[in-house]
Amino acid sequence: METGFPWGSTPTVDLRLWRADAIVLSDWLMSTDLNTVPITHPAQKQALADLLARLEEGIIESTDEEIAAAQAEVAKNMGW
Length: 80
Fold this sequence. Notes:
- The protein is mainly alpha-helical.
- The chain has helices spanning 19-31, 42-58, 64-75.
- The longest helix is centred in the middle third of the chain and has 17 residues, at 42-58.
- The radius of gyration is 14 Å and the shape is globular.
């Protein structure tokens, strides 16, 4: 259990992401106005902000080329 983020001894979950997915999600969250994302509870907006904070910790700032490459990599594996 992690004790430093965000509320002391709150139980946490370890989640492994493909780096390309993390880059795509991070880029999207940074460019999205969370006030316009449809939510049904304010905690959803906070959870997205928390996710962005965690992604920023794990990813060094990506260049436009790295973001485009990650988007292409993720898009080619779409099964729907």
